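Z., the sequence and structure:
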Amino acid sequence: MAHSTCRVCKAALTHTFLDLGVSPLANSFLTAEQRNHMEPFYPLHAYVCDACLLVQLGEVESPQRIFSHYLYASSYSSSWLKHAEAYADMAIERFQLNNESQVIEVASNDGYLLQYFHQRSIRTLGIEPASNVAEIAKGKGIPTRAAFFGEELAKQLVQEGYQADLLVANNVLAHVPNVHDFAAGLKRLLKPNGVMTIEFPHLLELLREQQFDTIYHEHFSYFSLRTAQKLLAEHGLEVVDVDQIPTHGGSLRLIVQHVEHAGEVAPSVGEIVQLEQENGLNQLSTYTQFSQRVELKRREVLSFFTYVQVMGKSIVGYGAPAKGNTFLNYCGISKEWLPYTVDQSPHKQNLYLPGTRIPIKHPDEIKRTKPDYVLILPWNLKQEIMESHAYIRDWGGQFVVLIPAAQVL
């Protein structure tokens, strides 16, 4: 692998967590013309560090290649926008923010979150590496830097007079290959008495729920609370509180402060560390045995698709998330098995999924073709999708999720 030492503790990586073979970049959607050309596939092989137990991928492609032009826009999910608005309400009250405060978000995407602070006349700054997505945020009145975040950019921003009362790093930690440079930047950009929140999918849930599809090249690392604490502590940052939240199949929200200004550590921090230990996250064998469970899951998926074919039923997909592309490529589901998927985002419609080349259509195609089953690929949004597309039940159609457990809904 390109990265033979651990990102956090630099120990040699020798233990496989999960080898998913080769796969294209999960967000490298194809145009009709690109289907006539060769598509790059890369090893999708996750390792676990036997010293700090960080699960991680090798860096097979540069972040610049992956993130400089990105088709994921957060604002196309209504439930995600509700989560963002609730977060803003919580933060304003809990951290006593006002129009003198400065909120800075790293990986701010299309302004989906900062818009709620902006609406309350709180100063905002977004940092977003994908220039096309940063432009959308600027159109909403959110000042946004189209740049990759690290210590150098943090230094530059501080020189320009920026420092955060609230520094937000939600769902970005996994996307960072150089986690020490990233953490050093956070340390520098946070005001002495400021507070930071970091959200990331919890490795405990990936293991418990067999969420193997959340492993893709854009996610370099998969954190437990214990490993996140270790990384942050090396940069003088302390986790003072932690909440379990339902996003992305189960995430943690860390409340972080400078060690020298940290308040009392909440009981929740020790409770989550204890929960991780009770589930074996402090034992290497928990990680090295995971691949056997995933192979059984793949057989279950293939059995379901075989059943659909044998019974002469029709099935289509809903959504074109990155996780769906890991799922379809690893399980070998082609357009012969899944003739099309649909997506709300106009940026993805009329493109093709990487690897499988399954076409992405407008959601209205479901009404036209009336399939027996609709497979929800972004299973973490299943409630939102089932409610907004309940019309499929008019012709007896049913929704299906295959992760974490196979369910016909």
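The mean pLDDT is 92. The chain has two domains: 74-287, 312-408.

Let me know what you think.
H.
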